[in-house]
Amino acid sequence: xxxxxxxxxxxxxxxPTDPTRHVGRPRDERAHRLILEATTALVLERxxxxxxxxxxxxxxxxxxxxxxxxxxxxxDLLAETCAQDLSRAPLDPTESLQGDLVGLLRQExxxxxxxxxxxxxxxxxxxxxxxxxxxxxxxxxxxxxxGACTHKTLERARVRDEVDGTDDAALLREMIAGxxxxxxxxxxxxxxxxxxxxxxxxxxxxxxxxxx
Amino acid sequence: xxxxxxxxxxxxxxxPTDPTRHVGRPRDERAHRLILEATTALVLERxxxxxxxxxxxxxxxxxxxxxxxxxxxxxDLLAETCAQDLSRAPLDPTESLQGDLVGLLRQExxxxxxxxxxxxxxxxxxxxxxxxxxxxxxxxxxxxxxGACTHKTLERARVRDEVDGTDDAALLREMIAGxxxxxxxxxxxxxxxxxxxxxxxxxxxxxxxxxx
Amino acid sequence: xxxxxxxxxxxxxxxPTDPTRHVGRPRDERAHRLILEATTALVLERxxxxxxxxxxxxxxxxxxxxxxxxxxxxxDLLAETCAQDLSRAPLDPTESLQGDLVGLLRQExxxxxxxxxxxxxxxxxxxxxxxxxxxxxxxxxxxxxxGACTHKTLERARVRDEVDGTDDAALLREMIAGxxxxxxxxxxxxxxxxxxxxxxxxxxxxxxxxxx
Amino acid sequence: xxxxxxxxxxxxxxxPTDPTRHVGRPRDERAHRLILEATTALVLERxxxxxxxxxxxxxxxxxxxxxxxxxxxxxDLLAETCAQDLSRAPLDPTESLQGDLVGLLRQExxxxxxxxxxxxxxxxxxxxxxxxxxxxxxxxxxxxxxGACTHKTLERARVRDEVDGTDDAALLREMIAGxxxxxxxxxxxxxxxxxxxxxxxxxxxxxxxxxx
DNA sequence: TAGTAATCGAGACGGTACGTCGGGTCTTTGT
DNA sequence: ACAAAGACCCGACGTACCGTCTCGATTACTA
Lengths: 212, 212, 212, 212
Hints:
The structure is a homotetramer.
Chain A: H1 29-50, H2 53-60, H3 64-70, H4 74-81, H5 83-86, H6 97-113, H7 115-130, H8 132-139, H9 146-159, H10 169-186, H11 193-208
Helix pairs in contact in A: 1-2, 1-4, 1-7, 6-9, 6-10, 6-11, 7-8, 9-10
The first copy, chain A, binds a DNA duplex through helix 2 and helix 3.
């Protein structure tokens, strides 16, 4: 009934003198997994507001206490649950700024339009807007900081002499994320590849020229 | 909210046939006002999630049923409460696309950064994202449709031959609203006049040139 | 159309001038009737607790005010509604005390077991038990005071020398009403003619003999 | 019912082999007691209709949910609250049917006239009359079934040859309870010892003779 | 081998708010 | 004067979750 150390995800032998080992009963990985799965299922079914700790506990067959022991509220729980859905892999650079921008837009769209993000993002942002600590905690959770990508993209463009030295990385990031978010979650618009090309074109041309 | 000459309260000498007069006890305008004031105060104090119907009733010294009689939930109540804060007056056109874009951005910032909108917008959007009917009801509430402004702006620019014939009004609207929203409510960034100028420049240049 | 002083239950008002003429809009007898009908229907459908002023108003298509103008609460309304169901005609005397007692019991059963009384009596009594004024008002509403019947019955029996001079009229009335009520509303028992005969026999024999 | 005094808030003694011990946080006996006390106080002050769950919760300093966890409505709560007041101990037999009947009547009067019963009985009966399940649940709650008493009483009288073999136990029970109830709750009459003697006499004599 | 310490299940607890129902009152127009 | 309509305040309903809090039972590491 209990997961042994040798089964499931743990393929390594347990080190007898592991400093991270604590006294007391170890955390039940199975319960942990069930909770995350229940959270995923519930939020996809009923949305951000329909997700409740009680519902997760019921669904996972777990005591509420066990949830509260590891996550302090439902947003904290969601953060871990959808971390993967909101993470982004580094992009392969293309030969042109246009190509890189389309790549960034495409990834942003893929992330924000994922089933999980679609259900969760607006609610999550609302909470983050009211809770500054939460916002910071959330930002620091994603492996690939989105700001870094735009920075590298512009760096490469600068090498190719496509743009000048102005550092628009942050602004570019905000415009990409902003337009995708607005279309997706405010206007509920489909966004085609052609749309992405057009947006990338506007951004690229806008960044290219420094002339007044 | 145009006041036609024939509209408003006419001092005619025909009180018995007043079309606005209904049978039954008339609505208590004072209670109505108290409720809206309490809503405003509460949402500014405690934010979107801290706003409850019970709290409003308590604060306004009004029965809960009186609130439910006129508004079906707290979003509906908020919609009326912050309608003014979220409305926008038509903008005076300037001589250049750059000037018009800065004007649009400035207005968007002013609206989204107003104390009320700042507290309310993210939460409101989260609800709208989950409830399609609500979204439509909310959109139709504001007198000046934001999409119309960008359309006119681009129309004027086209007359001046600053842009070609592509209809980017909707996209422009989304980019303006998106970047302002993202900076304001996701990144919690201040946005200076210089920032607005830079954003407008990027957008203008991006829209100007149609060459690939 | 107008109710004159000798009509129905409301006979206490005496207009100083013309008894049949009042100033202002006359009472709408149709509404009055609709209210009573709606009351009857509702109480039979949903029982005493299921009967509400709001429900009556809804069903009768009448304003609540109109009900409250004429009846001060639902018990008062019920009193008028079921007055007929709870009233009893004078009984024809028989040749024996036994026969008279069976008659009294039979009538009591008929009254308390009527569809209306069956729904209403327990609830009504509960209210009367808590509200003394109500109890008196209710008692005075029925044309044939039940106590009088038992009195006459015993009087006749005394003439026939079946009982002695002790005045047991009130007690007899209470025993008859009590046993019928208890069987009907507490035990939910059917009561056959044989049962009535047996009860009458016990009562008669009990009253007949004065021996120690 | 624990026999040991649980006067303090939490008994520190731990029974090692208590079969009634369940998993989860144990029921707070103090809250339980406070609720019953508040119920008693409220119903005596304000009567059956004045008793509300909210009122009990307020008075007991307890959450409403705690009440609803254990009792499904106010009648269920009352049932436990006044179980003691409505229970009756077995009666000591006397030497005569007359004496036994007076004893039964006296007990019936004592029970129905107790402060609690006086406030509660009519309302309770009204509810029972409308809800059959409730009636049965309520009947099964009292330790000494009243019907059994009358049965034994008549049995003893039969042995003494005071009555014949007809089984009038149920009828006797109904007549006793009925007349006491009617006098007490419908007529609001005081009932003296002499009254009881007279009623007992009527009943005894009525039951004694089987000849018409 | 016992002790210590953290975990998990179960579930009771005080709370807050929900949205609804009905009570009784009041205010207006219309008859 | 009465009727109809309906707005108003009020109190209570029963429910859903919240986050906290005992409990008894497990399940490691440690002394």
